[in-house]
UniProtKB/TrEMBL annotation, chain A:
Family of the protein in this entry: Belongs to the acyl-CoA oxidase family.
Principal location listed in the UniProt entry: other
Name of the protein: Acyl-coenzyme A oxidase
BP GO annotations: fatty acid beta-oxidation using acyl-CoA oxidase; lipid homeostasis
Organism, as annotated: Aaosphaeria arxii CBS 175.79
Annotated ranges, domain Acyl-CoA oxidase/dehydrogenase middle: 149-259
Keyword set, alphabetical order: FAD, Fatty acid metabolism, Flavoprotein, Lipid metabolism, Oxidoreductase, Peroxisome
Domain Acyl-coenzyme A oxidase N-terminal: 34-147
Entry annotation: catalytic residues: 458
InterPro entries the record matches: ACOX_C_alpha1, Acyl-CoA_ox_N, Acyl-CoA_Oxase/DH_mid-dom, Acyl-CoA_Oxase/DH_mid-dom_sf, Acyl-CoA_oxidase, Acyl-CoA_oxidase_C, AcylCo_DH-like_C, AcylCoA_DH/ox_N_sf
From TrEMBL, chain B:
Record: active site: 446 (proton acceptor)
Acyl-CoA oxidase C-alpha1 domain residues: 296-461
Main localisation: other
Pfam families: ACOX, ACOX_C_alpha1, Acyl-CoA_dh_M, Acyl-CoA_ox_N
Subcellular location per the Swiss-Prot or TrEMBL entry: Peroxisome
Pathway: Lipid metabolism; peroxisomal fatty acid beta-oxidation
Name of the molecule in the record: Acyl-coenzyme A oxidase
Domain Acyl-CoA oxidase C-terminal residue range list: 507-674
Catalytic activity of the protein: a 2,3-saturated acyl-CoA + O2 = a (2E)-enoyl-CoA + H2O2
SUPFAM superfamilies hit by this protein: Acyl-CoA dehydrogenase C-terminal domain-like, Acyl-CoA dehydrogenase NM domain-like
GO terms of biological process kind: fatty acid beta-oxidation using acyl-CoA oxidase; lipid homeostasis
Ligand binding (FAD): 149, 188
Organism: Aaosphaeria arxii CBS 175.79
Record-level GO cellular component terms: peroxisome
Length: 700, 693
């Protein structure tokens, strides 16, 4: 800890108007009822739950965040493990359900060493295990008597499960599987919770019977001794080392040297090896698994809104407090500098992102509702049609008539778009904070680095877009074959085809509905263009990937714009907030849509969805006007996302605007480096003359 | 410890793969490397210094990412000292020291001593002050830093709150921090290392004819003072000064960026650097000599260096991405029919190419502009020393706009490369974790990128106003020439087509970039000067103008290099560089298509064919990618990347780092949540952790 602060320093205050006064003035300039809007976004139940759990967490010393930004890798992991254990204890003590447990994780906001046990390990045992296997493994996992992880990706292979190298060879003599890693690149890699924590893993391996491969399947394998926690014989496992972020998680590697596991350890709900005949037997449809993936991706979309909202909250509050340069046109007598949030240059970066938080939130919500509705329908028996003829992927199904397929394709594209918007948006927020954004105390940098892997996991964002394109091409073919439209995608494609001779005339500036139609038009145009390249010009698939990427992006942007628009029309939303607030939300809708349209201007123009003049007008007039109209409400809009200061852990984003006091406090009081006095001269090899406080207790 | 994994090999041989890539192109790497990097004997110095540093254990980069913030500073200081000691025994000059910093690749706690501190004393100290300070500085008897920015104020020096009040009786200055926001903040080398600082403070002098009453003072703007801040023996702060490190950052872990406050701290009159301004003992008035704008001179120099650095940083990221993506395989071709086909190298995917190859082209675009800037800086410096400040506006304007664009291209480029590598890009083995974090400060330090672009815009508006009024005056520089051409032709402009059916018109490419910059300048001039629109309303438009103007410089300068490359390079190299030029230009044109069409620079119908042209250019460039990055000659030791190794042993290295060099694997943990114990067998019940929080 640093030396004591002298009295004359304690007396100092920031110059000019104080942060809390500035934020109070900001809040007074808008009439948005923050509590009502918060409730609309989160529901009262969720807000109350957060508050209760937050009180519990703040009272436990192990969750204290003060030293998070200073610690090294090993310390960060140790602390994270201590926190994960405490959380599991609290779960029992307070009898938390799954939602409450997850809320606690969200509030702590760091990946924990039990993360993959709690999610993929338990989910996979539940979904892919037979009742007998669930009894054997799942029950113990739920009680944490065994701790697991999910080992799919390998050193040489990411998203493509068909390329996995780890093998599981059936041995008919003793009815066992032999798990083996034939190459170095077969090493499991990146597996969360595997490095130091787990003693079991669900291992995805190529099943081999009698020399023939039957594709990848899941096997439960014990990897460490339950007492000593040392790796079992012929299992080689460890942590893969430091990363860009996620350093509280022990992502691991894993290699097998012909390890035998019993027959019962192959998860056999959908396929199994008959121990009598040694034959491979497929039973039931694994398409349900794609349902889970769709669900996971929908949550990523909704989460992206809130992930981004954290950055936008911090940047907006700080930019309302931070003042810089006089306005060039201000009279010379006026001394004070302008809050940077008054600069259009800052507004054009932050306000469209603020709009995006709401756009993503409503889109994610709509998708999850659609998913649940569809699950209900499938459970009612309508979903089983032709399931025996289905291939593995839902894009292989008859696309024109299946909501799940539409949802799956949308979820792939939206996952890619929304996580890219959120990740890039966070970096924009960080840079909008100027120099102080680079300090860890901004709270944005560390948050960004932990979020980044989302852009590559659950399907790399670029790779995923192929699935969307494939689905859109199929849909377009069915429309050309005059099949009647059965979902939104085929509806807009049919509409486009029927009007493509006549063209369109959308009033993108005057009508919100027309604005949505312009997005639909551009997507349809690009779909039929891509179809022409593929089916008529016979271009190779590989050459079309960039086109497909653009197509997928267009379709996802359309989906977001449409869902945002629909949400603001639905009574569920309009009945909960006053008309003036609804009006602000509609402005956010227009800002998001027009700003996107302007950035993708050449595609809109090329498709004929709007004219060059309209784009130019949107850019120079409408968007600028919207920025001005939304500006006074910015603070209350971010307030409605309801992030507690403890969660943000940011000097710049404090609710009370005490930005400079907090930056100074953290630097001068909590910073262990200031307990060290150095010898600065190169002529001496003494480094530290004196070490005091926290720094003395660490291993230096 | 030997185990069964020692004999495992990757499924595909990375070394053979890279060799095949190199065999497929006939570019002469050595010639191209000399062409790019021979200025001031760069390549020779790199070899020499690399040999020394890579043999010292202290400079091993293995464990850096595992260390905590205080440990990183510890290491940073140890290395900074060692470099100085090695340099003395080896007889290094400035060139070798700079190379050692580049190869060591972390912010040295001496960095500000060597850069802003020494530069400011040299440029702004009187001859007497230089004679007194320079020997101590060069001998490292004192260690300095540069304290300008404050907690509440970044780029705007006029808004600084720290004051230096002249006491006419004692002939001293009193340095004071009246508010918390007056605290110096972010100043490198100041937190724990420096003994002295250049403090930029508002000079307060008594109003003419008044006595010394407090409210009778008048500010004369920011001035630099050289101030001792720590005791030279105990290294404790002097009385009346509070100084410390500001804590962890996104990157720059080895650097002690600091804060500092003064409580009526008194310094002698000689503390004010007085080459350009001095307080008179008799009258208490400020005597200025020379041009006050020169205060911005050293800032301009730092920007120039940042641009030169940007190309090497981007080249490093691209090197890693190109090599790894030529080795990494994923999915078979969808159109593939034979089961014997192998998975494709990801660099053969257009979706990967479109992210990496335009950046490869960008490294060369930055190079030629960096060279041009370097020459311009030296030319201008000479004229300043002769007392002529005429070119400062041009230089300041060009340097700020280009700094903004180049650092953004590099910072975003690093991140794009990192993501293009999929999951492993996120790992410590990518070599881009530290680079990314350290480099990301560049878009905001030394003038926020969005803020400083205003300087370019206001300069261009002034130029355009002048051109409109003096249409036929002889042009003083290329900008005048361009604006006059634009004004004479704008009434009958025919939008251009730059690429058609595999044919490219390079001259037209240059023309459309210049036309767009001129047209945006004209629009800005019209909005501001003719329509008198408020400045803040125009900021976005002005920012776009700055970008367009800088892109025009990159494209024009790249184009102008053809003549030299055609004569000095042989084989396919000049042609490949031309392909890079086209790819950079068309990729940029496509990304900002609406800006080019709205300004009538290009024909709207020609936009749609750009994506095919870009695909073709990438196909042309693809076989040369590995050799082009080889030419940037980034040593493996500096790359510090498993993915980017020049020998292609990607997977062997990733595994070795994880398995054999990872300290976390030396600890066995207790994962059972019922037990408070964290390290298995330690029995400490978690107390160890709590003590650290």
């Amino acid at each position: 800890m640093a030396p004591p602060t002298p009295e004359w320093v304690k007396q100092l205050t920031p110059s000019g108007p104080q942060g809390h006064e500035l934020l109070a003035a900001e809040r007074a300039s808008s009439d948005i009822p923050v509590d009502q809007l918060s409730t609309l976004l989160h529901t009262k139940e969720v807000l109350d739950r957060k508050q209760q759990i937050l009180t519990i967490l703040k009272s436990e010393p192990v969750f204290d965040k003060t030293q998070n930004y200073f610690a090294g890798r090993t310390e960060r992991f140790e602390t994270a493990l201590a926190r994960a254990k405490k959380l599991a204890n609290l779960k029992v003590k307070h009898n938390w359900n799954l939602d409450e447990y997850r809320t606690a994780h969200d509030l702590i906001s760091e990946p924990g060493p039990y993360g993959l046990h709690d999610s993929m390990f338990v989910i996979t045992l539940g979904e892919q295990g037979t009742p007998e296997q669930q009894e054997r493994f799942l029950t113990k996992a739920q009680k944490y008597e065994i701790i697991g992880c999910y080992a799919q990706t390998e050193l040489g292979h990411g998203s493509n499960v068909r390329g996995l190298e780890t093998t599981a060879t059936w041995s008919p003599e003793d009815k066992t599987f032999i798990i083996h890693s034939p190459h170095l690149t077969a090493s499991k890699w990146w597996i969360g919770s595997l490095g130091r924590t787990a003693n079991h893993a669900v291992v995805m391996a190529q099943l081999i019977i009698n020399g023939k491969s039957f594709g990848p399947h899941p096997f439960v394998v014990q990897i460490r001794d339950l007492k000593t926690h040392e790796p079992l014989e012929n299992v080689h496992v460890g942590d893969i080392g430091p990363k860009f972020g996620y350093n509280t998680m022990d992502n691991g590697f894993l290699l097998f040297n012909k390890v035998k596991i019993p027959h019962v350890n192959m998860l056999a709900r959908f396929s199994r090896v008959d121990p009598e005949t040694n034959k491979f037997v497929r039973q039931g449809s694994p398409s349900l698994i794609y349902g889970t993936l769709t669900w996971v991706r929908s949550t990523i979309v909704m989460q992206a809104g809130s992930v981004l909202a954290r950055g936008v909250t911090i940047a907006t509050r700080y930019c309302a407090v931070r003042r810089q340069f006089q306005d060039r046109d201000a009279p010379a007598s006026e001394k004070s500098e302008n809050p940077v949030l008054n600069y259009t240059m800052v507004q054009i970066r932050l306000l469209p992102l603020l709009a995006a938080t709401f756009a993503l939130h409503f889109t994610g919500k709509a998708m999850m509702e659609l998913y649940q509705e569809n699950q209900k329908r499938m459970n009612a028996g309508n979903g089983n049609r032709d399931s025996s003829k289905r291939g593995a992927g839902p894009e292989e199904t008859q696309s024109g008539s299946d909501i799940l397929a539409d949802l799956h394709a949308s979820s792939c594209g939206l996952k890619a778009l929304s996580s890219t918007i959120a990740a890039e948006g966070l970096e924009v927020c960080r840079r909008a904070c100027g120099g102080h954004g680079y300090s860890s105390f901004s709270g944005i940098g560390p948050w960004y680095s932990d979020y980044l892997p989302t852009t590559t996991w659950e399907g790399d964002n670029y790779m995923l877009t192929q699935q969307v394109a494939r689905y859109l091409l199929k849909s377009a073919r069915s429309v050309i074959n005059k099949e009647p439209p059965t979902n939104d995608t085929t509806t807009i494609l049919t509409e486009f085809l029927s009007r493509s001779e006549v063209g369109c005339a959308f009033d993108i500036i005057g009508s919100d509905a027309d604005l949505v139609s312009a997005f639909a038009w551009r997507t349809s145009f690009l779909t039929f263009e891509a179809l022409k390249h593929r089916d008529q010009n016979k271009k190779p698939w590989n050459d079309l990937l960039v086109d497909f990427y653009r197509l997928s992006k267009a379709h996802s942007q359309y989906t977001v714009v449409k869902n945002f628009y629909n949400a603001l029309q639905s009574p569920a939303v309009t009945s909960q907030i006053p008309a003036s607030t609804l009006d602000v939300l509609r402005k956010l809708f227009r800002l998001f849509a027009l700003n996107t349209l302007e950035q993708e201007g050449s595609e809109f123009y090329a498709s004929g969805a709007c004219s060059k003049h309209q784009i130019s007008l949107a850019r120079t007039n409408t968007v600028m006007k919207l920025l001005k109209e939304i500006r006074p409400h910015a603070l209350r809009l971010v307030d409605s996302w309801a992030f507690d200061d403890w969660v943000l852990d940011s000097s710049l984003g404090r609710y009370d605007g005490k930005v400079y006091e907090d930056l100074f406090y953290r630097a001068s009081v909590t910073n262990p480096l200031n307990g060290i006095t150095v010898d600065p001269y190169p002529s001496s090899d003494v480094l530290f003359k004196k070490v005091e406080g926290i720094a003395a207790r660490s291993k230096l | 410890m030997p185990d069964f994994t020692d004999h495992l090999k990757p499924r595909y041989d990375g070394t053979a793969t890279l060799q095949a890539e190199r065999d497929a192109s006939t570019i002469n790497v050595r010639d191209l490397a000399n062409h790019l990097l021979s200025r001031d004997g760069f390549l020779q110095a790199q070899d020499r210094v690399l040999k020394v540093l890579s043999n010292e254990k202290l400079f091993k980069k293995d464990q850096q990412l595992n260390l905590s913030r205080p440990e990183r500073y510890h290491l940073g200081l140890a290395r900074a000292k060692a470099i100085r000691r090695i340099g003395r025994t080896q007889g290094w000059g400035d060139k070798e020291y700079a190379m050692a910093e580049y190869l060591n690749d972390e912010m040295s706690p001496y960095f500000l001593h060597m850069s802003m501190f020494v530069t400011t004393v040299r440029e702004q100290g009187s001859e007497e002050q230089q004679a007194y300070w320079m020997p101590q500085i060069l001998n490292y008897d004192i260690i300095g830093c540069y304290a300008q920015t404050e907690l509440g104020h970044g780029s705007n020096v006029r808004g600084l709150e720290t004051t230096a009040k002249w006491d006419p009786v004692k002939k001293e200055f009193e340095i004071h921090s009246p508010y918390l926001t007056a605290s110096k903040w972010w100043n490198g080398s100041m937190g724990r290392t420096a003994t002295h600082a250049i403090v930029v403070a508002q000079l307060l002098l008594p109003k003419k004819g008044s006595k010394t009453d407090d409210d009778e003072y008048q500010s004369h703007g920011p001035q630099p003072f050289i101030v001792q801040i720590r005791d030279t023996k105990t290294h404790q702060p002097l009385d009346g000064i509070v100084v410390g490190d500001i804590g962890p950052k996104y990157g720059y872990a080895s650097m002690d960026n600091g804060y500092m406050l003064f409580d009526h701290h008194r310094v002698a009159k000689s503390a004010m650097l007085s080459r350009y301004a001095e307080v008179s003992d008799e009258t208490g008035a400020l005597n200025r000599r020379g041009h006050p704008a020169v205060v911005y001179g050293s800032l301009t120099f730092v920007r120039g260096q940042i641009i030169m650095h940007a190309r090497l940083i981007l080249a490093r990221a691209v090197t890693i991405a190109v090599r790894y993506c030529s080795i990494r395989r994923q999915f078979k071709d969808r159109d593939s029919t034979s089961p014997a086909d192998e998975e494709l190298k990801v660099l053969d995917y257009p979706t990967v190419q479109i992210r990496i190859l335009p950046l490869l082209a960008t490294t060369f675009a930055l190079h030629y502009t960096g060279e041009m800037m370097y020459n311009l800086y030296h030319k201008t410096r000479q004229t300043i020393e002769k007392g002529d400040f005429g070119m400062l506006a041009e230089l300041h304007s060009a340097s700020s706009g280009l700094k903004s664009l180049c650092t953004m291209l590099a910072a975003d480029g690093i991140e794009t490369c990192r993501r293009a590598m999929g999951g492993h890009g996120f790992g410590g083995g990518s070599g881009l974790v530290g680079t990314n974090a350290d480099y990301l400060s560049k878009p905001t330090v030394e003038g926020d990128n969005w803020m400083i672009t205003q300087q370019v815009a206001s300069y261009l508006i002034k130029k355009m106003t002048h051109a409109v009024a003096n249409l036929d005056a002889p042009p003083k520089d290329p900008t005048d020439e361009l604006f006059q051409f634009y004004l004479k032709n704008r009434a009958h402009r025919i939008p251009q087509t730059v690429a058609h059916d595999g044919e490219y018109d390079d001259q037209a490419i240059v023309d459309v970039f210049q036309w767009r910059a001129a047209d945006l300048s004209y629009r800005a001039y019209h909005a501001r000067v003719v329509e008198k629109k408020p400045w803040t309303k125009l900021m976005i438009q002005l920012h776009n103008l700055s970008r367009a103007y800088s892109e025009q410089i990159l494209v024009t300068t790249f184009f102008n290099s053809f003549h030299e490359t055609a004569t000095s390079l042989s084989g396919p190299t000049p042609g490949v560089l031309k392909t890079c030029f086209r790819l950079y230009a068309l990729f940029t044109l496509d990304a900002f298509a609406s800006s080019f069409t709205l300004t009538n620079a290009v024909a709207p119908d020609s936009i749609y064919s750009l994506s095919d042209a870009i695909l073709d250019l990438m196909t042309e460039l693809r076989p040369h990618a590995v050799k082009l990055v080889d030419a940037w000659s980034i040593p493996d030791w500096l790359l510090d990347s498993a993915l980017g190794r020049s020998d292609g042993k990607v997977y062997e290295e990733l595994y070795d780092m994880a398995h054999r060099r990872n300290p976390l694997n030396r600890v066995t943990f207790n994962p059972d949540w019922r037990s408070d114990e964290i390290v298995l067998g330690s029995g400490d019940g978690g107390r160890h952790i709590l003590a650290k929080l």
